[in-house]
Structures are given as C-alpha cells and as structure tokens.
Specification:
Strand content: 25-35%
Distance between the termini: 10 Å
Helix content: 25-40%
CATH class: Alpha Beta
Number of domains: 1
Oligomer: single chain
Number of strands: 7
Length: about 190
Amino acid sequence: MKLILASLSPRRKELMNLIVGGFDIEAADIDERAIEDSLTGQDPLTVSEKLALEKALAVAKDHPGDVVIGADTSVIANGKILGKPQDRDEAKEMLTMLAGIEHIVATGVAVVRGDDVISFTEETKVRFYDLDPYMEKKIDEYIDSPDPYDKAGGYGIQTKGALLVEKIDGDYLNVVGLPVARLARVLTESGYI
C-alpha cells in the first residue's frame, strides 16, 4: 500500500513530510474551474472539500489498493470564494478588501482507498490589519513580488503575506495549505500510517 498525495503544490509536499517521509506525488487530471463552476451557489465552505474529493478520486482510480490524499484550499470573505489573482490590479483589490476584516481559510481534505472515503474541512479564521498608510505600502510592496499570484486569496501566510496578518484563530498550517495535525490523526486512526 502506497500513500499518494494528489497535488503538485510544493507547500503541501513539504507539509506532508511532517506526517510521513515516504509518499508519492501525482497530479489529478481534472478541470478544477469547471468543477468550481458546477458548485456555484453552494455553501463556499463545502467547495474545497468537494474539489479535494474529486482530486483524490481522479488519482485513486488508477491506484485501487493505495491511499490517495486530495486537498484544496479556499479563502472565503463576505461569503465569497477568492481565487488566485490574475494580475496586479486584482491582487490589490483582494488584499485591500481583506484589510480590517476576518476571513476564513478552508482546506478540504479527502482520503480515498478503494471504496473507503474520509473527507473533512478544516477552517481557520484570519484577520488582516486595518487599511492605513502602512498597510497600503505593504500591500503595494507585496503585489510587486511574484508571491500573490499562485495563492488563493492572493497571499501566503508563510511568506511576506504574513506582514498583512494581525491574528489567526485556528490551525496555522491549514492556512499554508494542509491541516497536518488533523490529517495525521485521520491517517493513523484509519491504519494507513
């Protein structure tokens, strides 16, 4: 029995190494945007878990005896999912909108082995500092870097995006991209590690 992470994310790979040293990586061949579009109108907190399950199932179909882990992280503000910004203007708009409010980072996780499926969503509340001249300067500096453009919500808490964050309530590593403590418990209690 192999353990397979259905993600090419370098952050998830690094976090998965905190749980177990030996695992394979295989990207899920799915159209995430089409799946997200099909989920329009559903509770934003359920979208990441459904995407994680689709990723895990796509990889698991070729590995019936192995354990496949799918994950997907969403940033949710004012009831709306914030994707990855396409350009500088969109990144600035997102980060400025997040200033001074609490938002949710939800990571859906699915663990699939054959017909056995375990899925869950971990939520962490994050609050950015209020928008003031210092914060405006930090946002401008941050969006001039390449960092915001491959991250949901336009920031990485493990990089200079941390300078925007006033506080978090919940699992820090969940905001990075994988709730390792909860996932390790699920894998252990299921007898997979």
